[in-house]
Each structure stands twice: as structure tokens, then as C-alpha cells.
Amino acid sequence: MNNPLNVSVSRFIFTTLPHMKLKSLSLLQSMVFVTFGIILLFLSTTSFALSNSIVAVDNAGTVGQYTSLMLDAQGNPIISYYDVSEAKLKVAHCFDKNCAQFNAILTPDAANNVGQYTSMTVDNHGNPVVSYYDQANSALKILHCGNASCSTGNTLATADSVGTVGLYTAITVNSNGWPVVSYYDATKGVLKVLRCGNAACTAGNSIVTPDLASSNGVQSSIKLNAMGNPVVAYFDFTHSSLKVLRCGNAQCTAGNTITTADASSNVGRYPSLLFDNSGNPVVSYLDLTNGKLKILHCGNASCSTGNSIASVGSGGIVGYFSSLALNASGNPVVSYYDLTHGKLNILQCGNSTCTSGNTLTVPDSSGSVGQYTSLKLDANGNPVVSYYDASNGDLKILHCVSQTCSLNSVVVADGAASVGQYTSLKLDTNGNPVVSYWDETNGDLKLLHCGNALCSTNNTITTPDTTGNTGWDTSLVLDASGKPVIGFYDFTAKIMKILHCNNTNCSGANTITKPDILSFRGASIALDSAGHPVAAASGQSDQGLRVVHCGDATCSSNNTITSPDFPVFPAQADVRGVSLVLDGNGNPVVSFYRADTNQLKLLHCADPACAGPGNSIAVLDPGAQAGDHRSTSLVLDASSNPVIAYQDSTSNSVKILHCGNVNCTAGNSIVSAATPNLGAEPSIKLDAAGYPVVSFSANGGLAVLHCGNATCTAGNTIVIGDSSASGWDSSLALDASGNPVVSYYNANDKNLKVLHCGTPSCQ
User: Fold this and answer.
1) CA 659 to chain CA centroid, nearest Å
2) What is the pTM of this model?
3) What percent of the chain has pLDDT over 90?
4) Cis previous bond, 570, omega within 30
5) In sequence order, which residues have a C-beta less than 8 Å from that of residue 589 and are 6 or more positions away?
6) Cα 280 from Cα 263, distance rounded (Å)
7) What is the dihedral of CA 536, 537, 539, 545, to 10 degrees?
8) Residues with Cβ < 8 Å from 615, sequence gap 6 or more?
9) Which of 36, 97, 347, 452 is deepest in the core (most CB within 10 A)?
10) pLDDT digits (tens, 9 = 90+) for 482-524
């Protein structure tokens, strides 16, 4: 991706989750109704809410290790796991998709000290088949359930008891429904592959040790290819590497190939294997040396050539207990454990090789959670994950509300070619976004009015001005009736225009005026108490900053125009980054750059028209330099002191300036709230506590900063809200719950996007 900071400068210049127990409260101690708490994060004053479901399915003692998850025909989770307190194998069958009520929890093997290292699949009838370790006898056992809940008709078999065997099991079934299992023989220190001779594994079994070249098979994952032959990804302990076994027949007795797919460091633990649409293996695993999750995408069926390996990390040591799924596009989705932070992580890859556009989320961070993950995707492609809550000793199920498990919504709001630059966003009275922006293809001003808070349905898009190449540098406000008022630049006519729409969608006969022939680019607009527009913009070079106070709602008469920062003759002013608000008296307050003198300035007018002699102009950060037309964004705190987010192209960072008084003449604090090489085109708002929230374009995509205090000196969070977009020209609002809503231009795909965060910090 291009550095947005560098690109912005050029844009300015040029365009310039047998004994049965049912849990329910209504039936004494044998029935415990599992309830759960979900925080509904309302995204507007309407009914839109986003919330992942997280449920403690079993909390009787210390339970939930070695989880393995499948979904039944209705999409309801079935989980095998180990009960540490009772030293038993358990199987839970949920009776709804979120495991929210009436879950069946069973102990299908009455023996003691059984159930570690579970792996589960389902047969052709949807009945669970589970491999696990019998610790009492050091043996591999197979459970084949007689129904989906394992409540009747179960068979139990000890499939291998020669030495200490059956650790680290992985199971699948062939077309007959007969189990095929990979597991570890601790006596010999090698991988074993079992092919059962019937569905119950009671006769005709074959067991092979396909790799005797090293100590291997501690942790494996098995699947059958299109020919019904096993393919196994496993950890080679001797060489600390990832290996892939491709069996030459169904029993793995001939024609096998073994490939060392990754030997780059201490790699290959916790492998999870699937096939892409071409039958090539895709494997997630741990890179212990570097503390990263790795994704192998093989170039052929044996992983002998053309492989791609991606390394993914979110800070700290991550990648333990990985579980892999492939979405409808063939892109990997992986659940795993962040050891450093003790959290469950979800990776949604942006492409089939996980080399770009990846999304990392932390859907459960309540204590030490996320060991022994097992992942499946529901019918909508949303992750369902079983995992262990170590803090509480519980089995948990996560059912995500989105494919990324993020509470954030990202939509392409206008997918036409080359649209979405110069966005400005406000929320209507229903919390629905309204966005003005430029259509580069047609050279038109456009307006989006979203049909709901997420912009996911019933949106309207209009083109209220098509005269010449128009619609640059838009600034949007809504009047008391919800009608848009937009200030913008007409490049053809080289003049600022003001549009007052005659309805909320700008679809009628709108009024467009040119209130000042000397007002040029970068308009910023507000409405006074009478609904009359007040605009600040860069003027012609010999005029500097221009302020227009319209005499009526459409700027058609009685306008007053001033140049409150008139350049000293013969200087040619270069005004950039204009941002205007009105104080409690209706007097304009404007932040802007004088790029010709490398000065960030604050104008506080002494009257609504900026016409009097008592205006205050303060130089705020000497030496700071402007990157482009949207390099400052201004709000006032509860004391009417300005708070400015601005781009300093000298340090390539976003800075936050909190003024010590209304004129910014004393007591100011300045912090670089974003690290270097971050920070183009910021947009700022204050949350209910008065803490700044800023959207901006960063190297990793569209970023959202939420400050931890009023001056952004501690507790800040920075989140990449959309890693697939450049995030140019962002415009920020906060919904009724304080959650950021951002419009922005995606320069990668040249479209308009809207992000609606599900939490105030977008996490």
C-alpha cells in the first residue's frame, strides 16, 4: 500500500465453540439452565445492535480442556472435551446455535481417567465419533455415538493399547463412516495412523507408523483427500519442523510421500489441516521461535513445490492451539491462543495465502481464555469456537455475529468507479449516516443517506451538483429539519459553493450559491443559531483565510465576508487544513495551517462575522507542517477550549493539541498520539468524558484512536478499523452509544466505505 502521508501531499499539489445430565434451572440439581450475558452494543437510537454470543456451556468443576467442535445439521454445536475434576470424557450437544439453553451434557465412557486429547468428527448420520486417550490404560479409545447427543446406542473400542499410545489424537471418517485416526505413540516416539475396519473400530483395524526417520507425531491433524487416502500434518520433534504425510493408499501402507514443509525455525506445533478447492493442503501452526501463528498453503497435493507461508502476529507469543477453517472464498479463518495476553484470537485472512487484508480480533478477553480452541463456520461463514476458560475452569462457546468476529461493521457504501474522496459525515436523528463526497469519474458532488445505522440497506445516493468538475473538499452539516447543507469546491469554476438541499436526500430542486468569489479550497461549514451557514476556506493567495457568514439559510443575501488572517504584502498565503466550529456565542473558531510560513494557527473571532478588531490568532506548533487539504480537525471541550487533531508532515504523525484556554494562548498540551508514519487527514470528536476520538489514514489502513484521557497522554488505544482500505479523507461521528462511525475513501478499490464500530474503542 502506498504511504498515505506521501500520497496525501501529492494529492494536495495535483488536485492539489453411559450417563446423561441435562442442564436447566427448572429441574432441580440435575437440570441447570445455562444462561449467558451479552452486552448489547446499540449502534443507534433504532434497533441495530451487534453482539457476539459467549456462553459457559459447562461450569461444573474444572472442565473444557481438549475441546473439539462440530456443528449438527441445524448448525448447533456438539463438543467433546475433558472434565479434569471427574477425569472423564464429556460430550455436550447444544439445542440452539448459541448454546444458550437446554444443553445435553453427557459422560459416555464410565471408565476413570479417560478423555484427554479428544478429537471429534461426525459420521454420515451426523452422530459424533470421538478419539481420545485412556490414561488409566495408556491406550487409544474410540467412541461412536448412537445419536447426535451420544445418549443411546454408543459403542466404545480400545483401538490400540501397545505401549503408551493415543495422545494427541486427530480423527476423520471415510466414506463408509469408518474412523481414521492419527495419534502419538509415546513409547516409540512416532506418529501412528489407524484405519478402522468398521464403524465401531472393533475389527479389521490397520495401524501403521509411516515415519520412522525421526521422533515425530506429537500433535497432528488428519484429513482424507479426494481418493480417500489420509493426509497428515504433524510436528517433527527431532528437527523442530512441520511435516506433511500424503498416504499412497487408504491404509498408508504404500506410496507414501513425506515432505518437510517448514523447517525455518522451531515450527509445526498445534497443526490444523484442510484442503483448498484444488486439494492442496492448508495448515495453520505455531512458530515457537518467533512467537507467531503461521499459515502454510501448499502449491500441490504433496506440498513439495509452490508453497506459500505467511506469518501472523498481534504482539507477544501467539499461535497456540490453532484451529483452521476455510471460508466461501477459500480464505483461512483461524482460532488460536495468545499466550502472552491469555486471550482468544480470531484471524480472518484477506486472501487464500494470508498475505494481505487480514483481520485480527480478540472476541473474548475476560480472564485467561482461549486454550484448546476448535473452530467451525456456520451457514453464514461466521466462526463458532469451543475453548477453555482457564480463569474459571469452564467450557465456553463463542458464536460470532460477523465473519471476522468483530463488532464493527464495514460496508462499501458506494461501489461505483472512483468515488468517495473528500468525505464529510453527519448522523441524522435516527443515527443513520449522511455523507457528502466527490465522484472522480464524473466530476460530480454526491450525497449518501444511509437507510440504517450500518448503511446495509435502503441507502439513497444522489448527485446534487453536476456542473463542471465539482464536489471537492466537501463539508457537511444538517439543518434543523435534517436537510444537508454542504460547502464544497468547484474545480472548474475555481470557487467555493454552498448547497442547501430541499429534502433530506438532496433529491429535489436544491439551492446552490457562490457567496464569495475569493473563497477557494478546503471549506469547513457550520450553522449558526438561525440556521445560516458560516464557512471558512482558503482564499485566493493574496487573501489568506476567508470567513463567510451567510445572511440567510441559502447564502443568497446579506452575507458578510472577511479575511481575518490577511497575508502581509507581498506574501502569497498557502492556507490548508481549515476546520471551523462555533463557540457558545456563535463566534467562529478556526484551526488552519499557513503552509507558506510553516505555522499551525488558531483563529478565535470576537464576533459572529469575524469583522471586529478583537479577533485572536495564535501560532500553536511552530515548525509543524501541513500535508494536505485536511490536515487539521477541531472541536471544543466543555470549557470551550479548542482540541485539535492535526497532521504534522514533519514527523509524519497525528498530534493532539489541547488548548489551555479559549484562544490557545497559554497552557496548551501537545502529544504525538500516533506513532510515526501514521496520521493523514484526521477527524476528531470528543466522547462523553471529553476524551478525544480520532479517525485517520495510517499505513495499516483506516485507524481509530481513542484517547485514555482528555490530553491523550495515557491509556490510548489505536485500532485499524479497516485494514483493507487506505482510509483517506475520513470523517468521524459518534453514535448515541459513543461508538465511532467513519466515512472514508478506499484508494485501493476507489470506493466509498463506512465503518460503524460496535464499541467506543472499535475493539
Assistant:
1) 33
2) 0.65
3) 80
4) yes
5) 580, 581, 582, 583, 602, 603, 604, 605, 634, 636, 642, 662
6) 19
7) 50
8) 564, 603, 604, 605, 606
9) 347
10) 999 999 999 999 999 999 999 999 998 999 999 999 999 999 9
